[in-house]
Write a sequence for this structure.
């Protein structure tokens, strides 16, 4: 049981490049989320999904796209990277219901130069 | 709207002493409250949660937290700190009406336990 798996662990992009951060979970969780973590700012919600085919925006969605074609996968796409998107990105999943805790991946450290 | 405040960026304690990491929250309805811990270069790990019932919640690694509705607080505590407890701690809240994808996290508190 791998839990939540994020790839890659590290990435350096040039401004304007695009890339996809991958997230997969093997716990059959309905809910999945993407957060970014910046120093002194905690975790901020980018996008989330309550099930396959359903996504919605979080607190800081600009510059990011998501899709959820399967229960297991929830990729995060950066269409045109900007230095302001330099951050550590975490994917999380939870079984469902607001009283359930989240399971986090180990993060992707992204640097945009 | 929901929000969380962790008023201390840093908490320093000596090994063997009790520790407290503070958290206050704001929600429009009844809260679900969570504590997570993050070790360096790792993802967040769940410690404990308050859903309903007993105001004192016990969790992993000897941690506990006390829910205080009148003070809208959910402070994390441990009777005797270990050096290995040194990490970044996050409090999170959900309104019971929100879906599970939308948690609001505090900015985090760095706990340092000195030998």
């Amino acid at each position: 049981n791998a839990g939540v798996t994020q790839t890659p662990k590290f990435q350096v992009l040039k401004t304007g490049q695009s890339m996809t951060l991958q997230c997969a979970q093997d716990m059959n969780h309905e809910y999945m989320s993407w957060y970014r973590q910046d120093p002194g700012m905690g975790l901020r919600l980018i996008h989330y999904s309550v099930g396959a085919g359903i996504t919605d925006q979080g607190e800081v969605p600009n510059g990011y796209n998501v899709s959820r074609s399967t229960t297991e996968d929830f990729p995060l796409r950066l269409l045109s990277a900007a230095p302001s998107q330099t951050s550590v990105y975490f994917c999380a999943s939870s079984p469902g219901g607001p009283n359930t805790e989240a399971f986090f991946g180990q993060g992707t450290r992204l640097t945009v130069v | 709207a929901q929000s969380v405040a962790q008023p201390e960026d840093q908490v320093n304690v000596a090994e063997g002493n009790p520790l407290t990491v503070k958290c206050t929250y704001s929600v429009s309805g009844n809260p679900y409250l969570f504590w997570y811990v993050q070790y360096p270069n790792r993802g967040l790990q769940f410690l404990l949660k308050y859903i309903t019932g007993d105001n004192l919640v016990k969790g992993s690694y000897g941690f506990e937290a006390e829910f205080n509705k009148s003070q809208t607080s959910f402070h994390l505590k441990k009777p005797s700190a270990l050096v290995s407890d040194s990490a970044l701690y996050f409090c999170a809240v959900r309104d019971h009406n929100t879906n599970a994808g939308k948690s609001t996290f505090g900015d985090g508190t760095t706990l340092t336990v000195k030998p």
Q: What stands out?
A: Chain B touches chain A through 29 residues (CB under 8 Å). The mean pLDDT of chain B is 93. Chain B is about 0% helix and 50% strand.
